[in-house]
Amino acid sequence: MRGLYIGRFQPFHNGHKAVAEYIAEEADELIVGIGSPQISHEPLHPFTAGERILMITQSLADLKIPYYVLPVTDVYRNAIWVSHVISMVPKFDVVYSSNPQVIRLFEEAGIEVHSPPMYDRDRLSGTAIRELMKYGGNWEELIPKEAAEVIRSIGGIRRIQQISQSDE
Amino acid sequence: MRGLYIGRFQPFHNGHKAVAEYIAEEADELIVGIGSPQISHEPLHPFTAGERILMITQSLADLKIPYYVLPVTDVYRNAIWVSHVISMVPKFDVVYSSNPQVIRLFEEAGIEVHSPPMYDRDRLSGTAIRELMKYGGNWEELIPKEAAEVIRSIGGIRRIQQISQSDE
Amino acid sequence: MRGLYIGRFQPFHNGHKAVAEYIAEEADELIVGIGSPQISHEPLHPFTAGERILMITQSLADLKIPYYVLPVTDVYRNAIWVSHVISMVPKFDVVYSSNPQVIRLFEEAGIEVHSPPMYDRDRLSGTAIRELMKYGGNWEELIPKEAAEVIRSIGGIRRIQQISQSDE
Amino acid sequence: MRGLYIGRFQPFHNGHKAVAEYIAEEADELIVGIGSPQISHEPLHPFTAGERILMITQSLADLKIPYYVLPVTDVYRNAIWVSHVISMVPKFDVVYSSNPQVIRLFEEAGIEVHSPPMYDRDRLSGTAIRELMKYGGNWEELIPKEAAEVIRSIGGIRRIQQISQSDE
Amino acid sequence: MRGLYIGRFQPFHNGHKAVAEYIAEEADELIVGIGSPQISHEPLHPFTAGERILMITQSLADLKIPYYVLPVTDVYRNAIWVSHVISMVPKFDVVYSSNPQVIRLFEEAGIEVHSPPMYDRDRLSGTAIRELMKYGGNWEELIPKEAAEVIRSIGGIRRIQQISQSDE
Amino acid sequence: MRGLYIGRFQPFHNGHKAVAEYIAEEADELIVGIGSPQISHEPLHPFTAGERILMITQSLADLKIPYYVLPVTDVYRNAIWVSHVISMVPKFDVVYSSNPQVIRLFEEAGIEVHSPPMYDRDRLSGTAIRELMKYGGNWEELIPKEAAEVIRSIGGIRRIQQISQSDE
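Predict the joint structure of the above. Result:
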């Protein structure tokens, strides 16, 4: 059974990794789909698709099952999004998502959806971690060390701080 | 004389129907143009173009004049929107609109615009009706029974409730 | 049962009308979907969506079943085209098409496709009729008189002749 | 040395003109790049690209160095925006900008960025001037007289007032 | 009176310059609109918009009237193209074109079109000049020396030769 | 050193696999970039991105170095294509390509390009293999057995034959 797990992963953090490991208990293969891959260098979307692919691939190196890490470009039209996803990634059997809109769209298309548990949701959220990055807090303990290394290698903290400044 | 009446119709309600009947008193034919037809499955835009076309066509079955119900895809550029509309629907003589931006754009293009009266604006608004749908209120008395039947047949209330949930 | 019949209708001719009448024998309602509605003023695509909607609606005035005439904007991606069509027109049960690619796409989506008979294919083809228009031949006997009237009212023959000239 | 100065110029005002004159002290040629040229007739973006090109060209008639006034269409993807700009305007050596995101993007591409001084920022801002236009204040003293003349010739004040109305 | 002259200018050659000088005899100002500005590095479209802007601006330095050199992005829809052009350049009174489709579109919009004479059409054509560039012929005598200098400064001949190779 | 190898892979064949093995001799990691991933169900582009990702990933299972298989969506603008690629895949050091246009674009961006040898080019070409598929020839010996298995599992031969039919 091949599972699909979609997120924006700005950045990929320990909560995402825990979900991947949870899926690895019940699926034979995992597809990690990166949403909004075309957006970067914005306060809510600091990292490029290429940077996120690297973070995720390296952070999952020890996952027990084979996995694909793939961008899923936005199409901005919900009614065709499911068939877009289907065409852009290998065939999958189950979607893992907690997003009500994503759940609804796959269910209308007759595709099975599982909602994985969330881990330490208050601390392990992209929003919270980007704030720590912006203000110099301890973000490194909240994300896999391989992802942290990618962020350091591209000057990611400096980027997030600079693009978050106001120009007024 | 052929009149053009543009709206999003999320959903088509009794106020929209009253405007169509008002236009039918002075025009020979009516074009109902559906704005943002490509957007659906969002809290502010729950229904697809196809679903809205069905709602409107069936709700206007007794209109006294012939009518066309047509999608008018967004182009996201005001300066070309009027010529886009002109190319996508049959030739029209008068636009019916209360939206100041729509009025301005057609007037700059030298096209006559009439502002139809509004009917019970507080209750008969898309926003108010979608809230009733979301929280289980009495939305059915505010829209034509044919439109209500379309919404029921697609599980529309369940859709609107599901996509309006937060995933936090 | 609601049938969907898709074509470009540049212009709508007697062969198209015969197919619509054939479908009216077995379906309860007909959707006529206009492909490439956004293209016009080109030698192979002379008429706008609005002009074609008018031609078709008026030519089918005596059809025995109710019908919808609707644009179906190109999406330039076959893998999502079927779900695009589904979202943009009322729900349909059977697709009528003789185009192998269209047939394949609907069949992969599990939708029933019928191939209607073709009528006098050599003379009743868009290509042949546009050539007659361009060189002053007798095109009027090949299309419904209502469609011919629309073409005359917009100066369509002059348009097709002018845009077909070379600028060398 | 050729400098690039990018802004939206809704409208072009005395602060923009002062920056252009500042650049003229250190550069040999100036490119004025107009951002979001495709957007117009909106409260925050009232003027078309053509109208802004005219305002700027005429307001800079006495600038001491040669200049180009060019639209730079939005691409909605930061990671490719710098190469888009490079392809759409003549080769430049220095970018003049106070916008942190613009600065970051050009710096990641290895291009020199200077931040020009701002002049009377509270009064000389697009937001403040559009408010004056909307409510009948004294906007004319804040923009070059040539730009004011362009705005008058197109009925710009009436446009901004009309599109800013609510339709409720 | 302000005239608009649209072309692709791949590259800008002596025939184009002669047309500009012809227009300068009857117009007060000239807008040179660059078509397909977003296309480059292809055998039929070797130069970027920025490179063409530079070629044209410098080649027309001695023109007797003021001129604007501006990109006009393709919209791929003839029915809205005229209003797109109108919104993207300063207001114009007359269009200069020999292209039958361009003439038709502006005429349908009620805009005056003049067809300028052509100069030595066999030799002074983009196609012929690009062939000379590709095979090492004497292209330099066919284009203004300022345009030739721009092409040399960017390695344009090497580019056109390289992208024209087959990879078989 | 990380190498990037871009192709359309319609389908992935033994020549492509030989190039990947050649690169594996000199690079530490390989990115396989799939061009035109959004196109499918056309005679020249029969397979979806998802199907091609599966073919390639499984065919390279024994490659000696780690690899990424990633779609690279078309942007239809050569001048920004290189920065698009850079943003969509992990950082790379060398591009492997025999396409003169691709070589030129990366060289203008200052990126190293190697041209790998071609293997049995007459037989190992996408065009030749799609012809064999269409006419029932022996295509299976020309592509990796894992890729052949993917094609069989999706009914790929029937698809290619059906979409290649004429509808005349």
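Strands of chain E lie at 2-7, 29-35, 67-72, 94-96, 112-114.
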